[in-house]
Write a structure and sequence with these properties.
Elements: E1 3-8, H1 16-29, E2 34-38, H2 46-50, H3 60-64, H4 70-73, E3 75-76, E4 83-86, H5 99-110, E5 115-119, H6 126-132, E6 137-142, H7 146-161, E7 166-174, H8 176-181, H9 187-194, E8 198-203, H10 206-214, H11 226-238, H12 250-256
Parallel strand pairs: 1-5, 1-6, 2-4, 2-5, 6-7, 7-8
Antiparallel strand pairs: 3-4
Helix pairs in contact: 1-11
């Protein structure tokens, strides 16, 4: 049975597109057939993160307009078998898509792929409604910051109101040392506030920026960065495997074992070497 999963949040800049690209790649590496759908029609970026922007000829709008077959609109990732992207056609970026059309599109993909991952636009307007219309599951992305958590909470309520009950939480860009030193919100605090099952915690990792700029998902190949490990672990949990969460406090504990003292007034930039 196909799993149609929308990856969403209530706030922009929390890493939805990065998570979509990497989870799709990780699942395809496990032998699954995966379609990634860029539902952010105005600010499309999924093709860039996958490094597929130069290979787009058709897209979702063209298929819905009857100007191409679904297979023509899909861009295959030649680096990873089983992974395709349904992009937004660049020549029709201002056209609107109805929820009914979006459901037709996603139902067509569900006939061919085991996973359909939808990269939702930020916010809760029309684009959000389109993105969730055919989804049966949702991954809510938040960072451990009050505005992001508040927006995620509102998004959860909207998803539940639409009948999407299979919700899981991913906390992104976690900085455990910074949280400890400056008494900021912890992973447990975020989970308790949002009150949905936690499926992944992704630490702040500069390799994410590098992979984004290179158009190459972090999990592609043998990347062993801590963020890549966390993303691969999330994919394994989606597959039903039991995988322990990474001990992100280990770097902080190592620091405590040294003779150095952390001054709470020290800027976070000066603490970065301990990550």
């Amino acid at each position: 049975m196909t799993r149609i999963i929308v990856i969403t949040s209530g706030k922009g800049g929390v890493g939805k597109t990065t998570v979509t690209a990497n989870l799709g790649t990780a699942l395809a590496k496990m032998g699954r057939q995966v379609a990634l759908v860029d539902a952010d029609f105005n600010l499309r970026n999924l093709d860039l993160l996958l490094g597929l922007e130069k290979r787009i000829v058709y897209g979702a709008f063209d298929f819905l307009a009857g100007e191409c077959r679904l297979e023509q609109a899909l861009v295959k990732d030649k680096r990873q078998d089983g992974l395709v992207l349904l992009p937004v056609s660049q020549k029709r970026s201002q056209e609107t898509v109805t929820p009914e059309q979006m459901k037709l599109l996603l139902d067509a993909l569900a006939q061919k792929y085991q996973y359909v991952l939808i990269d939702s636009p930020a916010g809760i307007e029309t684009g959000f409604e389109n993105a969730i219309t055919a989804a049966t599951e949702a991954l809510i992305i938040t960072t451990p910051e009050i505005p992001s958590i508040r927006d995620a909470d509102r998004t959860i309520k909207l998803l539940e109101a639409q009948g999407i009950k299979h919700l899981h939480l991913i906390i992104n860009r976690v900085r455990p040392l910074m949280a400890r030193v400056f008494n900021l919100m912890s992973i447990q605090d975020v989970q308790e506030l949002l009150d949905i099952p936690l499926v992944g915690v992704i630490p702040e990792d500069e390799s994410v920026i590098i992979s984004t700029n290179h158009g190459e998902p972090l999990v592609l190949g043998e990347n062993r960065s801590i963020a890549a490990i966390a993303l691969n672990n999330i994919a394994s949990r989606l597959e039903g495997k039991t995988v322990e969460f990474l001990d992100l406090d280990s770097s902080y504990n190592d620091l405590l074992e040294t003779d150095e003292t952390i001054d709470p007034t020290t800027s976070f930039a000066n603490l970065c070497p301990y990550f």
